[in-house]
């Protein structure tokens, strides 16, 4: 079974480090859906316009991350598009922080990968099980 961690890590590596896993059909689908979702949400929802500054405490960014999870994952009509949008916006948030703290890039990326996985698995464990995790839909 493909884990949420491997999906999130592959996407973050693609988005933030320009690393692409070869022959990864799931990542290719994820990239396309993430682009579509990002365009949709960025144009229409002010929650996804981040205002991160070099002096923003990490606790504020964790709160923003949690708010995105609540917006996308905490309701009864969850879809794969919501999950993929959350992964995409998590990577965007990490990217914004890395721009202000490039010397901490690796630790910031790893922190956001872990937080993203924990928020998905913690909030959607039953939903993922019912939908066969990452296997049958891509």
Question: In a few lines, what is going on in this structure?
Answer:
By secondary structure, the chain is mainly α.
Q: How does this model look, in words?
A:
This protein is mostly helical. Helix content is 70%, strand content 0%. It contains five helices and no strands. The chain is globular, with a radius of gyration of 14 Å.
Observed structural traits:
mainly alpha; single chain; 138 residues; 5 helices
Oligomer: single chain
The rounded Rg comes to 14 Å
Uncertain stretches of 5 or more adjacent residues: none
Strand content: under 5%
Mean pLDDT across the residues is 80
Helix and strand pattern: HHHHH
Distance between the termini: 13 Å
Task: Output the number of helix runs.
Answer: 5
Into which percent range does the helicity of residues fall? over 70%
Total beta-strand segments: 0
- Shape label: globular
Largest sheet: none
- Which structural class matches the secondary elements? mainly alpha
Q: How is the secondary structure organized here?
A:
Blueprint: H1 4-17, H2 25-44, H3 58-73, H4 80-100, H5 105-130
Helix pairs in contact: 1-4, 1-5, 2-4, 3-4, 3-5, 4-5
